[in-house]
Amino acid sequence: MGNIGRVEVFIGGLLGAMLVFLFSGLAIRAVGRAAYYVINEVRRQFKETPGILTFDVKPNYARCVDIVTLGALKEMVLPGLLALVGPVVVGVIFKAEAVAAMLMVGTIAGVLLATVMNNGGGAWDNAKKYIETGMYGGKRSETHKAAVVGDTVGDPLKDTAGPSLHVLIKLLSTITLVLAPLFV
């Protein structure tokens, strides 16, 4: 990797770690925005078709699926571009040792953060399920309400941000290796 005491190498490593956290934040924000689109659609359907609430009319499920699909694709453009452009910019500006440091530190930070997010999100989900078995007051208790909030935070961690970090790591390594001759 080179000497971490060299400014370029240190900056590359720092940018690799920063990229992981920025990518994760953008992925979590994407989930929140997509959920907001669905909430607005559900409210619209309830308002325009009151028979949904009395089970006389079926909701338009396909519209919600379309909203989630389009929202996910739209919201993940920026994180995807970040993963593609980051190594190129670092490699062109700071050269090969810096992009190698970015790849190494980004991989280390990505694996650690993905592990934390996957386990943390799973723990929140399991805590809610455990409370729903009747422990700590069971359903409709204050504890259950808190667990639902925790699970709402945990789901984007374990279902989106954590797993997507594996994709980020693969993209970083592929882009770096393919374009290595450009950086030398």
Describe the structure.
The protein is 83% helix and 0% strand. The model has no long low-confidence stretch (mean pLDDT 92). It contains six helices and no strands. The relative contact order is 0.16. It has one domain (7-183). It has 184 residues and is mostly helical.
Cα-atom radius of gyration: 21 Å
Percent in strands: under 5%
Give the biggest sheet.
none
Low-confidence stretches: none
Number of distinct helices: 6
Compute the separation of the termini in Å: 13 Å
Oligomer: single chain
SSE string: HHHHHH
Q: What is the total tally of β strands? A: 0
Mean pLDDT: 92
Structural class: mainly alpha
Q: What's the domain count?
A: 1
Helical percentage? over 70%
From the spread of the alpha carbons, the general shape counts as elongated
Brief write-up:
The chain is mainly alpha-helical and 184 residues long. 83% of the residues lie in helices and 0% in strands. It is built from 6 helices and no strands.
